[in-house]
Design brief:
By secondary structure, this protein is an alpha/beta fold. It is about 40% helix and about 15% strand. The protein has one domain: Aldolase class I (TIM Barrel), CATH 3.20.20.
Amino acid sequence: MTFIEKGQKIDIDRIKETTRLSEAALIIKEKRDKELAAILRGEDERLLLVIGPCSSDNEDAVLEYAHRLSDLQQKVADKIFMVMRVYTAKPRTNGDGYKGLVHQPNVKAAPSLINGLKAVRNLHYRVITETGLTTADEMLYPSNLILVDDLVSYHAVGARSVEDQEHRFVASGLDAPVGMKNPTSGNMNILFNAIYAAQNKQTFLYHGQEVETSGNSLAHAILRGSINEYGKNIPNFYYENLLNDIQQYEEMGLEYPFIMIDTNHDNSGKCYLEQIRIVRQTLINRDWNEKIKKIVRGFMIESYLEDGRQNEPEVFGKSITDPCLGWDNTVRLVKEIYTTLSKNEK
């Protein structure tokens, strides 16, 4: 094998040194982490939203969004619990395109992984300490988790990683919830095998050491739709899909059945306004069936300051990857969810 060494050696401890949570911030984070775990176990009936930009491409815009989201969270806290998407690494099937903050901390400059690692940690740290929210990120590179293991409260394994054994095994050793997406093929056996692996003990090599995990009972399913052989989007949030997935949870004896609906990607065909319809339809399905209501208790929503997407970072707070709901539409959707949940309780 040929690897060309580039740049300085990374000192993770040094990067972490200036962005460790204070005792006060840690108390807030630990409280929210316990609340999140209770929701996933079914002990807390609030709805979970993992919500935020498709990719965290601009620190100022992400922090502006975080402050607004924190204010909104306070207004709906009795019915809805929000974890903010601070996604800093983006999968690229052919290697082209924006790969996230970790690769390119300045989208108008050349990639810089050293600076990218610093920017990733700093952004999670600032969101937590400046807004009181906790954060979610995609576990694209399991070896990089050591950089943010003390900051990130929710990890997602994407559609292109869910079949990878290292992702499954690392997920089994995390002390935080892991949402696992179905693959782009739509093969649900792959997803449920991944959840099974993550919920059970595993032994493997990690960072050059033999490790043993205890299993992660909070690993769960995220339904993101799929693509058929003709390249057409196949949503998988429909009523029958949900009943089949609940049955699979039961037959495999998995712990704490929990289903989150990814309202974008192949469920929406990346038509960002469709996220609103998908949420509405799922809330109706929950109201129609007690099993669905008990298990389908989360939405993953792509949302930013401005509607849609752009190819170049010209408009502040507008996605440069997948199209997102803008802030006004986000507020309306969250308030609609809150009103629907309140009505259904009467």
